[in-house]
Amino acid sequence: MPIELNRRGFLASTAGFIALHPYAVQASTNQAHLRIMETTDLHVHVHPYDYYADRPSDRVGLSRVASIVEGIRAEAGNSLLLDNGDFLQGNPMGDYIAYERGMKEGDMHPIITAMNVLGFEGSTLGNHEFNYGLDFLMKALAGASFPVVTANVAKTAGATPREDDTLVPPYAILDRMLVDGAGEAHPIRVGLIGFVPPQIMTWDRRHLEGNVTARDILETARAYVPQMREEGADIIIALSHSGIGAAEAEDMMENASIPLAGVDGIDVILSGHSHLVFPSSTYAETPGLDVDAGTIGGKPGVMAGFWGSHMGLVDLLLERDGGGWRVVSHTSEARPIYQRNEDRSITALVEDFQPVLEATAQDHEETLAYVRRAVGKTDAALHSYFALVADDPSVQIVSNAQRWYIEQMMQGTPHEGLPILSAAAPFKAGGRGGPDYYTDVPVGDVAIKNVADLYLYPNTVRAVRVTGAQVKDWLERSAGMFNQVEAGAADAPLLNANFPSYNFDVIDGVTYEIDLSQPSKFDRDGAVINPDANRIVNLSYNGAPLDPNAEFIIATNNYRAGGGGSFPGTGDTIVFEGPDTNRDVIVRFIVEQGTVSPRADFNWRFKPMEGTSVIFETGPSGAKYASELQGMTLEEAGTNDDGFALFRMQL
What we know:
Elements: E1 3-4, H1 22-26, E2 31-39, E3 49-50, E4 55-56, H2 62-74, E5 78-83, H3 92-101, H4 110-118, E6 123-124, H5 134-141, E7 148-149, E8 153-156, E9 165-166, E10 171-179, E11 185-195, H6 200-203, H7 205-208, E12 213-214, H8 217-230, E13 235-240, H9 257-261, E14 268-271, E15 277-278, E16 289-290, E17 295-296, E18 299-304, E19 310-321, E20 324-336, E21 338-340, E22 346-348, H10 354-359, H11 361-371, E23 374-378, E24 382-383, H12 393-409, E25 420-424, E26 440-441, E27 444-447, H13 448-454, E28 460-467, H14 468-478, E29 492-493, E30 506-508, E31 511-514, E32 536-541, E33 544-545, E34 551-557, H15 558-561, E35 574-581, H16 582-593, E36 595-596, E37 604-606, E38 613-618, E39 633-639, E40 645-650
Parallel strand pairs: 1-10, 2-5, 6-7, 11-13, 13-14, 14-18, 23-36, 25-34, 29-38, 31-37
Antiparallel strand pairs: 2-19, 3-4, 8-9, 8-12, 10-11, 15-18, 16-17, 17-18, 19-20, 21-22, 23-27, 24-26, 25-30, 28-34, 28-35, 31-32, 32-33, 38-40, 39-40
Domain 5'-Nucleotidase C-terminal: 438-568
InterPro entries: 5'-Nucleotdase_C (IPR008334), 5'-Nucleotdase_C_sf (IPR036907), 5'-Nucleotdase_CS (IPR006146), 5_nucleotidase/apyrase (IPR006179), Calcineurin-like_PHP (IPR004843), CpdB_N (IPR041827), Metallo-depent_PP-like (IPR029052)
Protein name: 2',3'-cyclic-nucleotide 2'-phosphodiesterase / 3'-nucleotidase
């Protein structure tokens, strides 16, 4: 039996009353306004709390987004609340449930509990849903009171997508009642279909290989969308946990939202995965997007940031067309839960919805106890403020732990005796996370929360066997972090804002310089664009020039070893797949050492360029560590509009 779209009644809250959308006012007898609400990339951020910093945060939390939901439903209009995936992993609460408490049959995961309280009406799987394995995933999903759909992941693949035995239902059709402009209720069938990047088979091969397969997103959509129409779907919403990338379709593309919108029969695109906001100025020049109209590939769309930072809203004016409905017009908006002020402070724009906090209060308290547990000590501060411009202690401890572990694992194998290097990248290095998004662990106790802060993801340890030439190209790929700088330039911008910090691998065990006067050999996605470029110079091992034909073992993680980031020397070179997460290895390393001394060994630096200076940004709190940078001349150069401290470096 169809139920009303606005079927959950909430009490008015201090979040404030949201005015009726013009469509709701303008809708005539045969028209109706439907507001679609999206969350995406929640990553277990239920409470407005930063577990890594162990303090409240006004920038995150489903409990805050919930107040926007509550206000919209209070209008008594037609609404749907949907999630776009990556809800199960991503902060210490997720790790606590997965690694400490576990999930037994019948247990409720706190993010599922919160989503049930809010009355979500559908979701798709994101790529991070697979990080803890399929058994954990399915036990968590069992508690959901809403359909979770993903069309392109199959337990058993058939000859065509429609013959697949999918892991979860490929789609769902919701029977709802839609109230028109005259107050009359009419049935509507809303189709939801979900998609996840097929790269999950690389990123979580340990959990997925031999258990599921992943298909191309567009191939799958073209197979299922007509079937949904045949089953009576009036409108179809694509839950695309696939970022906004190229407008042109490619086989097995990761960020497929624009070409997905071109699939006939899809009416709305809810995107995610990229941790960005659409519509916003970020995408002003992106082919296939219209920021002003709020369209992705010509269809109404939205992407609602990450960690509950925004509520995505797509408003549709629908008109009855025969026995069904069609979209007449639309608007899109990503509504934030906070604003950044001119003095760089944060003002919350909404308050918490208490039922969400109350339903997950015990999980929150147990997570706090979990992250505060000490595992050892450090006699050097572990910070990432300068991780993108100098060898760094927060990366060094990760590298040291990986190398320590792989040295043990190589004993008694055909690879024993090969030199072992270690590749690690900074995860918290500002960027989209803001000026407070840095690791900063003082001298003293190291708790689990600090290890989670050092290493954000539940990756597992891998080792690859590579040549010296591949080591060099690995570093060339990593050096895409930096803009090309002309000799003699004054205050040239150093950091490439489009290059993610998690792809800035530092390889320990070798020494090298980065020549910024050279262009990058690779583009952002790892394709060779300047084959003759040589940013990596004076590359040495044990004090001698690195032999391009020599062989090495590199300790790394499953993401990188499996091809994540498209680094040379990865993808088909894996010689060891560890059962342990990198975090667990770091904890074990600290426990065994008792007290660690992870001071940077300064194995890399920029090649000097006389008379040249560059500007880079970091967190304001990094100033206290600037004097520790060996052989570097830095001076403070003010702040930017986003609240980052600017530093000038003489090359």
